């Protein structure tokens, strides 16, 4: 098999040359056998540059690439896709992140930075040389069905978009409510079982009291939030307390209807045993209090919290809230706020900054922490999806697919991902519907690549891999030895790590390949 490597070094908007000698890196690459092309470019994140890179790759007929550096995670998939168009498989494109692994840790150590960059380049080249072109297989999808779990705002939007792309949508709604759905709406329906993989799932659905099997190519999890399930000691004593959703809805509909003074407390459970204020809830809280204060400056507004993390532009919203006169009071977990025993409309808070207790009278009290939907856990267990600490379905990657999950063909949106406003839920529903629709309309599903394989001679049939794999990929067939269903394998490596007989290898991450890379990194092999 040919092995012709292209090495691309990005000047990273001209920052890299100040610390690193890119010319020296380029000459190391050029002196390595199997390297057919070396390019030093200014901006890898520029489309024109990417075109030039793949043009050179085509001319030089390279079949693998080492790229350094690009810290922007949104650039990597675009570059990998561009290489794919000229025949370089994605498993043979290696990104070496010099920014996070060299430039940042060695910013005051030019010599150390250069030495590490050179070692990483050599290791990447050694690894590339040891890799093989992996075979991919494909099979036809049995249907173009997209099953959407939850017929709330995001679920309906997802169905409408996927249907518009030609997919056949089936909405599962656990309540018996009647809604207008683009294709099929199954009311009083819930998911109770799932088998298969992206492209060819078989779901078991309970419709009323009847169990039905449903084939589908893609799934969208669009369960709503747990709107009213506030838990914790403060929820019990604050009668009439609102969730953040309810407060949002009220201020959007008619901010005059909010009785002042308004107090927003981080969580009804200050000890944090059951409910914590999620980071994203602060953004929403700050937006609400600023909007209300702008509309009704006379209303007294308090925000009571232990920790507040508001990122990016939310910092400006916090500043505006302070300027408008919103009062922020921080308390310690050991002295949680309490409703005054004598007055149910007064909250006593020990102000951490002033070391004194403030008695806040309120007309409206709300909590910033947003309850997750209790169905999320059940659905995640059935579909084998990981959960976040907040009780929401965990997404795959913020940069590469904010509505994707670690399992191909399963998408997530709205408050299943984490509780959020209706407008955001609708937007995400649209994105998830588009991704599920596109996935279902491909017609074929591709699998293989960097997946697990078992060496039957070494397998002692201990079943450890079967019990360990989160995706149910290992199985025992007629051979009496473990085998891997490649369609289900995500190449996570858990089985390879735990197999007591060392019988499992991950293709292109085999022990020998890792040893070669590691020994080069340590300076053993050049
Ligand atoms: S863990 Fe290893 S030895 Fe045990 S069944 Fe799986 S492959 Fe075989
Ligand atoms: S690599 Fe991960 S997904 Fe694949 S069989 Fe092993 S444990 Fe399962």
Which labels suit this protein?
alpha/beta; 526 residues; 5-stranded parallel β-sheet; 32% helix
Tell me what the structure shows.
The chain is an alpha/beta fold and 526 residues long. It is 32% helix and 23% strand. It has 16 helices and 26 strands. The strands form 8 sheets. Strands 8-7-6-12-21 form a 5-stranded parallel beta sheet, with helices on one face. A 5-stranded parallel beta sheet has the order 13-20-14-15-16. Strands 2-1-3-4 form a 4-stranded parallel beta sheet, with helices on both faces. Strand 10 and strand 11 form a beta hairpin. Helix 7 (153-164) runs parallel beside helix 13. It is globular, with a radius of gyration of 28 Å. It starts with a strand and ends in a 5-residue tail after the last helix. The mean pLDDT is 87. One iron/sulfur cluster binds next to helix 14.
């Amino acid at each position: 098999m040919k092995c012709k490597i292209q090495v691309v070094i990005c000047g990273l908007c001209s920052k890299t040359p100040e610390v690193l000698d890119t010319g020296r890196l380029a000459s190391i690459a050029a002196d390595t056998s199997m390297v057919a092309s070396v390019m030093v470019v200014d901006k890898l994140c520029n489309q024109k540059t990417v075109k030039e890179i793949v043009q050179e790759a085509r001319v030089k007929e390279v079949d693998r690439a080492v790229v350094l550096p690009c810290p922007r995670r949104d650039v990597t998939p675009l570059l990998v896709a561009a290489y794919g168009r000229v025949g370089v498989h994605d498993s043979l494109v290696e990104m070496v992140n010099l920014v996070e692994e060299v430039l940042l840790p060695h910013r005051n150590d030019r010599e150390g930075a250069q030495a590490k960059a050179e070692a990483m380049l050599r290791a990447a080249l050694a690894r590339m040389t040891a890799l093989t072109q992996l075979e991919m297989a494909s099979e036809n999808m049995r249907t173009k069905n997209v099953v959407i779990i939850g017929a709330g705002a995001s679920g309906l939007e997802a169905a409408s978009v996927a249907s518009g792309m030609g997919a056949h949508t089936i909405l599962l709604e656990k309540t018996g409510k009647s809604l207008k759905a683009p294709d099929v709406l199954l009311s009083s329906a819930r998911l109770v079982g799932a088998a298969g993989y992206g492209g060819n799932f078989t779901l078991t659905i309970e419709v009323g009291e009847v169990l039905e099997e449903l084939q589908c190519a893609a799934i969208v999890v669009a369960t709503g939030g747990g709107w009213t399930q506030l838990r914790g000691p403060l929820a019990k004593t604050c009668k009439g307390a609102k969730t953040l959703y309810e407060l949002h809805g009220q201020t959007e509909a008619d901010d005059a209807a909010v009785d002042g003074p308004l107090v927003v407390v981080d969580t009804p459970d200050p000890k944090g045993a059951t409910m914590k204020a999620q980071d994203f809830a602060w953004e929403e809280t700050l937006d609400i209090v600023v909007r209300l204060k702008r509309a009704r400056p006379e209303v007294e507004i308090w925000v009571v919290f232990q920790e507040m993390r508001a990122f990016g532009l939310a910092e400006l919203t916090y500043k505006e809230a302070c300027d408008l006169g919103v009062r922020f009071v921080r308390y310690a977990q050991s002295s949680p706020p309490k409703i005054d025993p004598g007055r149910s409309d007064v909250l006593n808070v020990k102000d951490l900054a002033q070391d004194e207790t403030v008695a806040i009278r309120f007309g409206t009290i709300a909590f910033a922490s947003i309850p997750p939907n209790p169905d999320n856990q059940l659905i995640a267990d059935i579909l084998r999806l990981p959960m976040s600490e907040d009780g929401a379905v965990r997404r795959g990657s913020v940069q590469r697919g904010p509505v994707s999950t670690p399992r191909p063909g399963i998408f997530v949106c709205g408050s299943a991902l984490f509780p959020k406003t209706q407008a955001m839920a609708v937007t995400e529903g649209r994105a998830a519907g588009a991704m599920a629709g596109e996935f279902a309309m491909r017609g074929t599903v591709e699998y293989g690549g960097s997946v697990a394989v078992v060496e039957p001679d070494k397998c002692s049939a201990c079943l450890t891999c079967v019990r360990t794999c989160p995706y149910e990929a290992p199985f025992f067939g007629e051979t009496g030895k473990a085998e891997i269903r490649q369609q289900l394998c995500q190449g996570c490596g858990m089985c390879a790590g735990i197999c007591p007989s060392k019988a499992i290898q991950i293709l292109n991450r085999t022990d020998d390949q890792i040893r070669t890379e590691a020994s080069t990194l340590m300076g053993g092999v050049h």
